[in-house]
Amino acid sequence: MFNAARGILGIGVLMLACPTGYGDAVFTSDGSKIVGTIERMGGEKLVIVSSIAGRLEIDTSKITAVAIDNQLNVEFKSGDRLVGTLDVSADQSTSVMRSALGEVPVEPKQIASIWPVGGESPTELSLRKEVDQAKVALTPKWSVTLEAGGSSTEGNTETLEARGRVDITRKTDNDLLNFYLAAKYYDQNDIRSTNEYRGGIRYENAISERWYWYTRVELEFDEFENLDVRSTAAAGAGYYWIKRPDHELKNAVGLGYRHESYSNGVSDDQAVLDFSLNYRLDVAPWLQFTHATVYSPDFQDTADYRLDFDTALQLPLEDGRFKLKLGVNHEYNSRPQPGLERLDTTYYANLVFQLKDS
After folding, report:
1. Residue 130 has pLDDT above 90, yes or no
2. pTM of the entire structure?
3. Domain identity same for 152 and 64
4. For the chain, what is the domain count?
5. 3-state secondary structure string, the chain?
6. Of the residues 77, 106, 134, the one at which a domain ends
């Protein structure tokens, strides 16, 4: 064991010869000496608690000698472990490990880690931290967002405009599941001119740090487009061009199937391409910019397509759970039913309420 301990040890450890009870001390390359209680050493850091300077973390590359008065676990780079104290000669030229095996000469810069007897080693602490982080990453967070806006007038002209949206999201570091339901309604003098409902489910799962695969299903009803149902199912792959907490840009490409049934008995089935782009930027703590684009052309006839844009600014109110959302939404159908416009544009100001994550 004496021979094994000689060239297997990690981090320069030297000790001044001093009586038991002197305490622990750290000597650094700039000539400083810090006296206190050494908690542990590992990960290229040594932690010592000093009655004067408090709790300090010191880079092991700057340590020239360590004095350990109380018994501690010492692990060498070879994986061998000893329990004992460390002494060093007055000229700091020789270090000695005093353990149950006797006195073991120790070369400097070969001790991997030091920690209290009965405590967890830095390696065990690191592994436990990684496990805890993995558990947190896999623990789903649920959030619910309620969004509503509208107006009402009475007098010569009576109008009622209402719009709303509910989003339920389940998110982990590896996947994302979103359910949504949205509606728009407009009535003037008891005559409806807008009556539209849309809902869908989208699931994303990470392939790597930036790549992911997705699948989505969407249903739509629009009374004044004479649309009884439009159903779209698609799947594909996406990529995060920017992935930061305050700045995100991703796009996805896939293949899908779209079915449309109209109140006049006409129906249409198409294989479609599925393109999407999502952008978010937290401009400031009080301002967020978002943009979403969905482009779905017919697989065989790309001149037949649907294109949706939504661009908005969000400003937090009160405690941040309430937000004011100002935006514009464009829905473009290159081949609408006879008598209908290709483009629908909605300018909106909605109140958004964010339930706390769970």
Report:
1. no
2. 0.63
3. no
4. 2
5. CHHHHHCCCECCCCCCCCCCCCCEEEEECCCCEEEEEEEEEECCEEEEEECCCEEEEEEHHHEEEEEEEEEEEEEECCCCEEEEEEEECCCCCCEEEEECCEEEEECCCEEEEEEECCCCCHHHHHHHHHHHHHHHHHCCEEEEEEEEEEEEECCCCCEEEEEEEEEEEEECCCEEEEEEEEEEEEEECCEEEEEEEEEEEEEEEECCCCEEEEEEEEEEEEHHHCEEEEEEEEEEEEEEEEEECCEEEEEEEEEEEEEEEECCCCEEEEEEEEEEEEEEEEEECCEEEEEEEEEEEECCCCCCEEEEEEEEEEEEECCCCEEEEEEEEEEEECCCCCCCCCEEEEEEEEEEEECCCC
6. 134
